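To: structure subgroup
Subject: Chain for Friday's discussion

All,

I'm putting the inputs and outputs inline so they're searchable in the archive.
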Amino acid sequence: MCGIGGLVYTRGTFPQPQTVLDRMAAALRHRGPDGAHFARLPHADLVHTRLSIIDLAGGDQPLSAGTGTLIANGEIYNDPQIRQQIGQSHFKTGSDCESPLLLWERNGTDYARGLRGMYAIALYDSAQEELLLSRDPFGIKPLYVTEFEGGLAFASEPGVLLAAGLAPRTMRPSARDELLQLQFTTGRETIFSTIHRVMPGETVRVVQGRILDRQHRSPLPDLVPNQPPLTEEDALHQLDAALMNSVQAHERSDVPFGLFLSGGIDSASLLTAMARLPRPEKLRTWTAVFEARNAADEADAAADLARGVQAEHETVRITASMVWQHLPAIVACMDDPAADYAIIPTWFLAQKAAQDVRVILSGEGGDELFCGYGRYRSAIRPWWRGGRRMWRRGMFDGLNVLRTHPADWRDGIMAAEVNAASEPSRLAAAQAVDCAEWLPNDLLLKLDRCLMAHGLEGRTPLLDPVVADVAWRLPDTLRVRGDKGKWLLRRWLEQHCPAAKPFAPKQGFTVPIGAWIAEQGERLGTLVAQQDCIQEIARPERVRALFQAAGGRKTGHAAWTLLFYALWHRTHIRGLAPTGDVFETLSQ
């Protein structure tokens, strides 16, 4: 796992000075603490910071072959198969990121279609003055671009482009409204006025500093028309093969790795699959628990599962004082903002795990592929039985806190719904909407930023084409049955790890942020209300009242969102570094 950045110039444009590249490397250092390297090429400059995972001694980038130079952030899980196909003698290193380069020599701009993995790749052809920017189909690894007068710049994080002075710290108000109502932003445009995402599955072709065209690769397989539905027995057999194949591929590493274990179905499934594979040393697992009254706690269940497979397990206890001390730094790592309070446990788990390992496997994607959310079951009911569309209400609807009610905050979700209309069922369409927006722009973004803040690589075995091929061919009856989502995954876990009790009621994993805010309601509400960015969008007296009533579910989420936005705006729009705990930071 690494950080990448660079610039390509239009003809006649002078290249940026080395100081700009140095600023990019400094802003990427947390993603690649093991060294920075540069390539100054005709009409292009590339920056790579490395977190060494595969081929520790010989895998430095940039990598070159013929007229091509490549830098990449990610892991190519079918690298062994690509090497066998091309011939090992053609490779100069043991780096898995050399495979995309050699595929490009053979297949040109279609090279990414041969990749299985998570990746953000920049590949520059000096002869054609052409840059290819590619991102994996699920959007596990991030990539951003900004155009300027003399060309185009790209980086793993928008904060890199801001720090290097390649993009202004100005916001798109429509994206801010979307953030407030959805807690994340959708589509190609980011919250920054001139910075855009390379979309999941895209390969963008840039010639002489300008974008010419885009290719797209879907994360979800094309279904064969009139294919007989899978029986439960066949589906279980295929799921077992797919999970074992994916977990084994995701364990490939030259450094220690472990697992975030929540006590839920997804991480328990990964633990079960990992325990069936041979390994030279004990598996390491980590679980978060919150020290707060009435907080959901599955730590004991997770610890029991870990002990059952002889894993070395740690419980990370998170208190309110820890959150207030570190929250400015936690929010600062979310430069592309997602106000998901799950960033809190993810950040603390990464901080702890990074002391012992460099790679973490995590269960993101299980709900989206196997149908775990209650909103899916609601989306497929008729309206007279309580059915309702997803993401239909915004966070601040009915609270009378904002000065102006956001009007178009649901446009991005509506566009995803239109694109998903061709799916074979309403259930699959609902899942496809989440795979297009919620998954890459909230869950995977959260995992990437919180782990990379600690120099830790995150891997998601459930988000793999081998697994998706099985999950997406399931009939609805094997996705949801009665009030149970993830039906087939639960059945698989019941067969292979009955101790996980996959059909028992789950407590869930909810951060008690509302209760913690309510404890500091008057003090914290006053500090948030006095921020200029909050006064611009909200009524201060209503903000203070909201924080004092934050013990409720809706009021707690809304107060958290304003707190997140106040801290985020201070760091990423005003450009001020965190300078203490949450109270000290907001007091300045």
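Points worth raising on Friday:
The radius of gyration is 23 Å.
The chain has a mean pLDDT of 94.

D.
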